[in-house]
Amino acid sequence: xxxxxxxxxxxxxxxxxxxxxxxxxxxxxxxxxxxxxxxxxxxxxxxxxxxxxxxxxxxxxxxxxxxxxxxxxxxxxxxxxxxxxxxxxxxxxxxxxxxxxxxxxxxxxxxxxxxxxxxxxxxxxxxxxxxxxxxxxxxxxxxxxxxxxxxxxxxxxxxxxxxxxxxxxxxxxxxxxxxxxxxxxxxxxxxxxxxxxxxxxxxxxxxxxxxxxxxxxxxxxxxxxxxxxxxxxxxxxxxxxxxxxxxxxxxxxxxxxxxxxxxxxxxxxxxxxxxxxxxxxxxxxxxxxxxxxxxxxxxxxxxxxxxxxxxxxxxxxxxxxxxxxxxxxxxxxxxxxxxxxxxxxxxxxxxxxxxxxxxxxxxxxxxxxxxxxxxxxxxxxxxxxxxxxxxxxxxxxxxxxxxxxxxxxxxxxxxxxxxxxxxxxxxxxxxxxxxxxxxxx
Length: 441
Fold this sequence. Notes:
This protein is mainly alpha-helical.
């Protein structure tokens, strides 16, 4: 695949051009030291913008199925249907959000709306619904419990999609520089990993500090409630900090008449909005990029969903290990992911996105083969931690490199950034939901 993707040839920059581009994106009236500090802090603040979504996603994929099946005692197929519903709603909301976010208001306004919607619905997903104890009225619960959580899941996933697409679309809105886009993508993923680590660390503490039990059972519902409330508090703090301190200033590019204009005013394609959408839909590279992202997310999501369920099953064979294993193994997985994403941040521009994706795919394949041949509920715990390390490494490399490819595909067409990100991420949500319901059946 061509390294420039959807970008124009002007994106191929020598070292001096890169520095010039960076200088154009920073207010040159600020002294050099302050300007350097500003640039670093703004990049870190950008990573905060998706932290709440990442906290919710880690809890959603890792513990939702466990909460529904072990605590609420839902049948496996119903719990799988709940996850499928969430993925379908997310997938359907994604392209709608992409079109609307490019057409109306600013990316930060959309981001704030999504964060508020997530804050109102996410904590309730891990709190037992009113009168939902199975012993009270089983026939009544057969329709009330799924209906209650289905409504919450629908609104939660709409909010989640709004935050995801608006936050991704900020990257091409503020820079055309491929190196900076890659760095922002890496920082975004590192923030995601740190968020997920926080979820597992909080869960581990709650499971150890509260009334300790070997298995997860219905009486443990308050533990999931406490974790979800703590996560919500952290998430609200992170997106509030993002909206107060992060300054979304579109990069400026010299125009032919000598004046400087903002990139969002540039229309590289002299077509209508509909024609621009058709232009991108006709690009084979768009679908190739989507496949890269879909496979990366599918591998990652299924690992998050079924590692805790596998560990819960393992406790029936090795009860002495305790229920905190459900948190400690994902914790190792994310530590590995954080380490490799940090290494990737400084090296992805040297080795290229394609080579990085190949390395990540190879590590992921090793973990899959290892699981198929050697991992079962009786396996040594050291093997499980090693496999978790490979899963974390492979998934972090493939996810970051696939998002970098997407940013390259957008090129200078930042006014269509939200739409392109929504197209690329659309299929992964449907595929993940279908995979889970198939496995549950």
